[in-house]
Amino acid sequence: MKIEEVESAALQLSQRDLEELVEHLQAQLRRRGKAIEDDPIYGLGSSPVDCDVTDGAVNHDRYVYGSPNG
To answer: I need a surface site. Which of 14, 21, 22, 42 has the fewest CB within 10 A?
Structure first.
């Protein structure tokens, strides 16, 4: 079964059944020694860096890839 099929089936569940599914999957991960909270993605934004940029979202590409003129 593809992940898209699993997602589609999960979205058809009632809210209660969906919550039970999430709890079950989290318990499975804990049994395998991997708590969801240990995923590095949960740490994003926990230690922001202040670089005096006030328009980072507006000019994201310029800051990441450099200006088109140089």
So the answer is: 14
